[in-house]
Amino acid sequence: MRKPVVGVIGNAHRVENRFQVQMVGERNLRAVAEVSGGLPVMFAGSPDITDIGALLDTVDGVILTGARANVHPTRFNVDPCEKHEPYDIHRDEVALALSVACVARGIPLFGICRGLQEMNVAFGGSLHPEIREIPGRMNHRMPRLENGEIHPDPTVVFADRHDVDLTPGGAFAKILGCEKIRVNSLHGQGILEPGKRVLIEGVAEDGTIEAIRIAEAPTFALGVQWHAEYDPQHNPINRKLFEAFGEALVARQKAVA
Protein backbone atom coordinates (compact mmCIF):
# COMPACT_ATOMS: atom_id res chain seq x y z
CA MET A 1 0.00 0.00 0.00
CA ARG A 2 1.30 3.47 -0.87
CA LYS A 3 1.94 6.14 1.73
CA PRO A 4 -1.16 8.18 2.52
CA VAL A 5 -1.09 11.59 0.88
CA VAL A 6 -1.80 14.48 3.25
CA GLY A 7 -2.70 17.93 1.97
CA VAL A 8 -1.21 20.69 4.13
CA ILE A 9 -2.64 24.16 3.57
CA GLY A 10 -0.34 27.00 2.59
CA ASN A 11 -0.27 30.55 3.92
CA ALA A 12 0.17 33.73 1.90
CA HIS A 13 3.46 35.57 2.47
CA ARG A 14 5.41 38.27 0.69
CA VAL A 15 9.16 37.61 0.48
CA GLU A 16 11.53 40.60 0.37
CA ASN A 17 8.37 42.70 0.14
CA ARG A 18 8.19 41.75 -3.55
CA PHE A 19 7.42 38.10 -4.16
CA GLN A 20 4.04 36.61 -3.28
CA VAL A 21 4.49 33.03 -2.08
CA GLN A 22 2.62 30.23 -0.33
CA MET A 23 4.45 28.80 2.68
CA VAL A 24 4.09 25.93 5.15
CA GLY A 25 6.07 25.50 8.36
CA GLU A 26 8.44 22.54 8.09
CA ARG A 27 7.40 21.21 11.50
CA ASN A 28 3.96 20.43 10.06
CA LEU A 29 5.45 18.55 7.14
CA ARG A 30 7.82 16.56 9.36
CA ALA A 31 5.06 15.64 11.80
CA VAL A 32 3.04 14.17 8.94
CA ALA A 33 5.99 12.36 7.39
CA GLU A 34 7.76 11.15 10.53
CA VAL A 35 4.87 10.42 12.90
CA SER A 36 1.68 10.00 10.85
CA GLY A 37 3.54 8.06 8.16
CA GLY A 38 2.11 10.14 5.35
CA LEU A 39 3.45 12.01 2.35
CA PRO A 40 2.87 15.73 3.03
CA VAL A 41 1.91 17.82 0.00
CA MET A 42 1.32 21.54 0.35
CA PHE A 43 -1.68 23.06 -1.43
CA ALA A 44 -2.32 26.75 -1.91
CA GLY A 45 -4.60 28.61 0.46
CA SER A 46 -6.09 30.41 -2.50
CA PRO A 47 -9.39 29.56 -4.24
CA ASP A 48 -8.00 30.72 -7.60
CA ILE A 49 -5.41 27.94 -7.47
CA THR A 50 -6.90 25.18 -5.35
CA ASP A 51 -9.89 23.21 -6.59
CA ILE A 52 -11.27 21.61 -3.42
CA GLY A 53 -13.02 18.78 -5.20
CA ALA A 54 -9.89 17.84 -7.15
CA LEU A 55 -7.81 18.13 -3.98
CA LEU A 56 -10.05 15.77 -2.04
CA ASP A 57 -10.00 13.30 -4.93
CA THR A 58 -6.22 13.22 -4.49
CA VAL A 59 -5.46 13.27 -0.74
CA ASP A 60 -6.19 10.86 2.09
CA GLY A 61 -6.27 13.56 4.76
CA VAL A 62 -5.91 17.29 5.37
CA ILE A 63 -3.99 19.41 7.87
CA LEU A 64 -5.11 22.98 8.57
CA THR A 65 -2.03 24.52 10.14
CA GLY A 66 -1.49 27.46 12.41
CA ALA A 67 -0.75 30.85 10.86
CA ARG A 68 -0.05 34.43 11.83
CA ALA A 69 -3.15 35.78 10.07
CA ASN A 70 -6.49 35.85 11.88
CA VAL A 71 -9.74 34.56 10.37
CA HIS A 72 -11.52 37.60 8.94
CA PRO A 73 -14.25 38.78 11.37
CA THR A 74 -16.87 39.13 8.63
CA ARG A 75 -16.89 35.32 8.50
CA PHE A 76 -18.73 35.40 11.83
CA ASN A 77 -20.60 38.71 11.45
CA VAL A 78 -18.17 41.03 13.26
CA ASP A 79 -16.63 44.23 11.89
CA PRO A 80 -12.88 44.02 11.17
CA CYS A 81 -10.38 46.08 13.13
CA GLU A 82 -6.87 47.15 12.07
CA LYS A 83 -5.29 46.07 15.36
CA HIS A 84 -6.34 42.48 14.67
CA GLU A 85 -4.65 42.29 11.29
CA PRO A 86 -3.17 40.61 9.31
CA TYR A 87 -5.96 38.65 7.69
CA ASP A 88 -5.77 36.04 4.92
CA ILE A 89 -9.18 36.11 3.26
CA HIS A 90 -8.13 33.70 0.50
CA ARG A 91 -7.09 31.04 2.99
CA ASP A 92 -10.38 31.64 4.84
CA GLU A 93 -12.32 30.85 1.67
CA VAL A 94 -10.44 27.61 1.06
CA ALA A 95 -10.18 26.38 4.64
CA LEU A 96 -13.79 26.97 5.65
CA ALA A 97 -15.21 25.23 2.61
CA LEU A 98 -12.62 22.47 2.94
CA SER A 99 -13.52 21.79 6.59
CA VAL A 100 -17.14 21.08 5.67
CA ALA A 101 -16.18 19.08 2.59
CA CYS A 102 -13.71 16.85 4.47
CA VAL A 103 -16.30 15.92 7.06
CA ALA A 104 -18.97 15.32 4.44
CA ARG A 105 -16.67 13.03 2.44
CA GLY A 106 -15.18 11.21 5.41
CA ILE A 107 -11.65 12.50 4.86
CA PRO A 108 -9.51 12.82 8.04
CA LEU A 109 -9.13 16.46 9.08
CA PHE A 110 -6.73 17.82 11.70
CA GLY A 111 -6.93 21.53 12.59
CA ILE A 112 -4.06 23.14 14.49
CA CYS A 113 -4.35 26.59 16.11
CA ARG A 114 -5.82 28.67 13.26
CA GLY A 115 -7.04 25.37 11.86
CA LEU A 116 -9.20 24.78 14.94
CA GLN A 117 -10.58 28.30 14.60
CA GLU A 118 -11.38 27.72 10.93
CA MET A 119 -13.18 24.48 11.71
CA ASN A 120 -15.29 26.26 14.31
CA VAL A 121 -16.23 29.12 11.98
CA ALA A 122 -16.93 26.68 9.14
CA PHE A 123 -19.64 25.08 11.26
CA GLY A 124 -21.22 28.37 12.31
CA GLY A 125 -19.17 29.33 15.36
CA SER A 126 -17.53 32.64 16.26
CA LEU A 127 -14.13 33.80 17.49
CA HIS A 128 -12.78 36.43 19.85
CA PRO A 129 -9.88 38.41 18.33
CA GLU A 130 -7.95 38.64 21.62
CA ILE A 131 -8.71 35.98 24.21
CA ARG A 132 -6.49 37.75 26.75
CA GLU A 133 -8.89 40.73 26.73
CA ILE A 134 -11.73 38.63 28.17
CA PRO A 135 -11.88 39.08 31.97
CA GLY A 136 -10.25 36.19 33.80
CA ARG A 137 -8.30 34.91 30.79
CA MET A 138 -4.55 34.53 30.63
CA ASN A 139 -2.27 35.77 27.85
CA HIS A 140 -2.16 32.89 25.35
CA ARG A 141 0.30 34.61 23.00
CA MET A 142 3.87 33.42 22.51
CA PRO A 143 6.52 34.61 24.99
CA ARG A 144 8.36 37.80 24.12
CA LEU A 145 11.41 39.64 25.43
CA GLU A 146 11.07 42.88 27.40
CA ASN A 147 11.65 44.87 24.20
CA GLY A 148 8.65 43.19 22.59
CA GLU A 149 10.56 40.91 20.24
CA ILE A 150 9.64 37.23 20.05
CA HIS A 151 11.82 35.14 22.32
CA PRO A 152 14.70 33.75 20.22
CA ASP A 153 14.74 30.32 21.87
CA PRO A 154 12.14 27.96 20.30
CA THR A 155 12.21 25.74 23.41
CA VAL A 156 10.92 28.74 25.36
CA VAL A 157 8.40 29.78 22.70
CA PHE A 158 6.97 26.25 22.41
CA ALA A 159 7.27 25.29 26.07
CA ASP A 160 4.19 23.89 27.82
CA ARG A 161 2.40 26.80 29.48
CA HIS A 162 -0.96 25.67 30.83
CA ASP A 163 -3.13 22.66 31.58
CA VAL A 164 -6.09 21.44 29.53
CA ASP A 165 -8.89 19.36 31.04
CA LEU A 166 -10.27 16.81 28.58
CA THR A 167 -13.83 15.48 28.40
CA PRO A 168 -13.95 12.09 30.17
CA GLY A 169 -14.58 9.37 27.63
CA GLY A 170 -14.17 11.77 24.71
CA ALA A 171 -12.08 11.25 21.59
CA PHE A 172 -9.08 13.10 23.00
CA ALA A 173 -9.17 11.30 26.34
CA LYS A 174 -9.28 7.97 24.50
CA ILE A 175 -6.41 8.86 22.17
CA LEU A 176 -4.23 10.34 24.90
CA GLY A 177 -5.15 7.93 27.69
CA CYS A 178 -5.72 10.66 30.27
CA GLU A 179 -8.05 13.51 31.18
CA LYS A 180 -5.54 16.32 31.84
CA ILE A 181 -2.67 17.42 29.66
CA ARG A 182 -0.24 20.34 29.50
CA VAL A 183 0.29 22.23 26.24
CA ASN A 184 2.06 25.16 24.60
CA SER A 185 0.23 28.39 23.78
CA LEU A 186 0.88 30.68 20.81
CA HIS A 187 -2.38 32.38 19.83
CA GLY A 188 -4.34 35.58 20.30
CA GLN A 189 -7.64 34.67 18.63
CA GLY A 190 -9.78 31.86 20.04
CA ILE A 191 -13.23 30.32 20.04
CA LEU A 192 -16.00 32.50 21.50
CA GLU A 193 -19.11 30.51 20.56
CA PRO A 194 -18.77 26.95 19.26
CA GLY A 195 -20.39 26.00 15.97
CA LYS A 196 -23.49 23.80 15.77
CA ARG A 197 -21.57 20.55 15.28
CA VAL A 198 -18.52 21.58 17.30
CA LEU A 199 -18.15 19.55 20.48
CA ILE A 200 -15.81 20.97 23.11
CA GLU A 201 -13.45 18.27 24.36
CA GLY A 202 -10.69 20.29 26.01
CA VAL A 203 -10.69 23.49 28.09
CA ALA A 204 -7.76 25.43 29.55
CA GLU A 205 -7.65 26.39 33.21
CA ASP A 206 -8.92 29.89 32.33
CA GLY A 207 -11.88 28.58 30.31
CA THR A 208 -10.35 28.91 26.84
CA ILE A 209 -11.48 26.19 24.43
CA GLU A 210 -8.44 24.12 23.45
CA ALA A 211 -9.74 20.93 21.79
CA ILE A 212 -12.77 20.25 19.61
CA ARG A 213 -14.38 17.42 17.69
CA ILE A 214 -16.91 17.66 14.88
CA ALA A 215 -20.03 15.75 15.91
CA GLU A 216 -21.08 12.76 13.77
CA ALA A 217 -17.98 12.99 11.58
CA PRO A 218 -17.33 9.55 10.06
CA THR A 219 -13.59 9.78 10.71
CA PHE A 220 -10.91 11.85 12.47
CA ALA A 221 -12.14 15.47 12.59
CA LEU A 222 -10.32 17.06 15.50
CA GLY A 223 -8.90 20.50 16.22
CA VAL A 224 -6.44 21.71 18.84
CA GLN A 225 -5.66 25.27 19.85
CA TRP A 226 -2.05 24.47 20.73
CA HIS A 227 0.76 23.77 18.25
CA ALA A 228 0.70 19.99 18.14
CA GLU A 229 3.25 19.94 15.31
CA TYR A 230 5.97 20.94 17.77
CA ASP A 231 8.37 18.07 18.48
CA PRO A 232 5.92 15.14 18.23
CA GLN A 233 8.89 12.79 18.19
CA HIS A 234 9.48 13.54 21.87
CA ASN A 235 6.26 15.15 23.11
CA PRO A 236 3.95 12.20 23.94
CA ILE A 237 0.72 14.24 23.65
CA ASN A 238 1.51 15.57 20.21
CA ARG A 239 2.92 12.23 19.06
CA LYS A 240 -0.25 10.34 19.99
CA LEU A 241 -2.40 12.83 18.10
CA PHE A 242 -0.36 12.53 14.91
CA GLU A 243 -0.27 8.75 15.30
CA ALA A 244 -4.06 8.69 15.61
CA PHE A 245 -4.32 10.90 12.53
CA GLY A 246 -2.04 8.43 10.73
CA GLU A 247 -4.28 5.52 11.70
CA ALA A 248 -7.26 7.40 10.30
CA LEU A 249 -5.37 7.95 7.04
CA VAL A 250 -4.71 4.24 6.63
CA ALA A 251 -8.31 3.41 7.46
CA ARG A 252 -9.46 5.90 4.81
CA GLN A 253 -7.18 4.29 2.25
CA LYS A 254 -8.56 0.84 2.96
CA ALA A 255 -12.14 2.08 2.84
CA VAL A 256 -11.79 3.49 -0.66
CA ALA A 257 -9.47 0.81 -2.05
TrEMBL record:
Main enzyme class: hydrolase
EC number of this enzyme: 3.5.1.94
Gene3D superfamilies named in the record: 3.40.50.880
PROSITE patterns: GATASE_TYPE_1
One GO BP annotation of this record: polyamine catabolic process
Record keywords, A-Z: Glutamine amidotransferase, Hydrolase, Transferase
Pathway entry: Amine and polyamine degradation; putrescine degradation; 4-aminobutanoate from putrescine: step 4/4
Pfam families, A to Z: Peptidase_C26 (PF07722)
GO cellular component: cytosol
Recorded GO MF terms: gamma-glutamyl-gamma-aminobutyrate hydrolase activity; transferase activity
Reaction catalyzed: 4-(gamma-L-glutamylamino)butanoate + H2O = 4-aminobutanoate + L-glutamate
Similarity field: Belongs to the peptidase C26 family.
The protein's role, per its UniProt record: Involved in the breakdown of putrescine via hydrolysis of the gamma-glutamyl linkage of gamma-glutamyl-gamma-aminobutyrate.
Protein name (record): gamma-glutamyl-gamma-aminobutyrate hydrolase
Naturally occurring in which organism (per UniProt): Bradyrhizobium zhanjiangense
